[in-house]
Amino acid sequence: MTRPLLALLHLCDSLFPIGGFGYSDGLEAATATGLVETPGDLQAWLDVCLDEVVGRMDGPAALLAWSAFERGDWEALGELDEEITAMRACSATRRSSSAMGLRLVTTWSALYPDRRLEHLLDRARQRPRPALPIAFGCACASAGVGMRDAGAAFAYTRLASTTSAALRLMRIGQTDAHARLAKTLERVPMVVEAMTMRARPESFTPAMDVSAMTQQYLHSRLFRS
To answer: Which residues of the chain are under the pLDDT cut of 70?
Structure first.
């Protein structure tokens, strides 16, 4: 178990170079317009991120990608990638997900060589993907990380990234922000279990989608999305 665990810690560390620090997934626009102002607002944003974005859309996609990668079912993986990309209402988030996904697979393949990852990269050169959840699921499968652990790790990376963005965008102290994160993380095991039973990803996050789409119109920005 040691090697998969260490690989998973490496993948989830903010040090890992996929460029996630440059994206807020609409949180910057939400704070600029007053939708997210207080610690309580951040808690609500994190809850929606876990329940809807991770729990119903990106998380199930990552687990389905893990399974398809394990089977070597490249057609199913390609269809899933197209589906999860089409679900993103904002063009900026589609681009950012693809950019981070490709960076993840390229870097992971160089650090932890696997012929299956090389095949995935060959397919990616023919189309501008994979999306981040697909890449994450495949990287975990290639490293021998279990499916549920992969789901929990993906949830953590998304929630931690959002919390990191909030610290740069809001008037909130580190302890308070991490308290909100810790409270949300308590529900991750239950959400991951529900993710394993979803046959396909779903998406309904209108407030987040609108915030992401209005990001480009902000007078000044710290984040690209």
So the answer is: 1, 128, 225
